[in-house]
Amino acid sequence: MQGNTTLAATCAPWAPENCNVSFEESRVVLVVVYSTVCTLGLPANCLTAWLTLLQALQGNVLAVYLFCLALCELLYVGTLPLWVVYVQNQHCWTLGLWACKVTAYIFFCNIYVSILFLCCISCDRFVAVVYALESRGRRRQKTAVAISAFIFVLVGLVHYPVFDMEHKQTCFETLHMDSRVAGFHYARFVVGFAVPLSVIAFTNHRILRSIRQSQGLTAAQKARVKRSAVAVVLIFLLCFAPYHLVLLVKAAAFSYYRGDPSAVCAFEARVYTLSMVFLCLSTVNSVADPIIYVLATDHSRQEVSRIHKGWKQWSLKTDVTKLTCSKDSGDTGSPTALINHYAFSGPVHPPGSPCPPRRLGEESC
Hints:
By secondary structure, this protein is an all-alpha fold.
């Protein structure tokens, strides 16, 4: 508790360590975007995780990657309220050092886990579409599970040094850049963005070319595959390209100014608001990823419609039962009324619940 008090007391939005940037310029945008993404991303990724889990249990290979992607997004969305508090406090972290480290660790891991799973989705679609005959029986779910586990472990280990870093005021906003941070920015751009971009661009280009030449696919199937491929590319470019370009520009500026503190700080102050806007775009990925599920799977919209219809029917049954009970409440002294009500009212079950054994004449679940 004393650490939190000390940290709060030393926070100064215009401190030299923060390169005298104006946090207020981006505050409203960050709060609005983080709050919106949290509000929309939580139910969207919960639904996606549930539906893809059902498909994965039925042996669907692509559903494994989509399920892991949804879990990753859910974990990150859960930390967004902490970032909202942080931004509202003028980028002063008052929740403790370890809370900052864990939250930042989830943030960094989420970006690159999401990128790698977008690569997996593209590669899986590439094999299934371009090599449709050759891949039959070779696309195994066990392989998808192993690859997913490897991605989580790899990204987790790469970003583990986050727990060794110390931050006194801001939470992992390295506004005063050094050579170590600049090198990390270069590595993130090349390994975390440029290489995955090449993979996603190549695989989806081949997918689009293959479906144009295919004679065995219907027009509807071609349209669905095309929408899925275009969605993956657009989500990747819109959500991750601006953020990584800013990282590259910042690292290049550090190299250009040869690490001169005053020149680097002045540059950081000029591009800070723009970099925050681009950071918001990477956060929007948590809302955009469920779109891939809708476009990439055959029965996604039907599943969502079926669940919505089931809940409406369950709600209607519940309302009818309550209305019947209210009508009969005035006749509680009448044995005939009680017998009639309990003899002919069927059980009410929420959608998806198992049906109990029923007797002849009972209502179907």
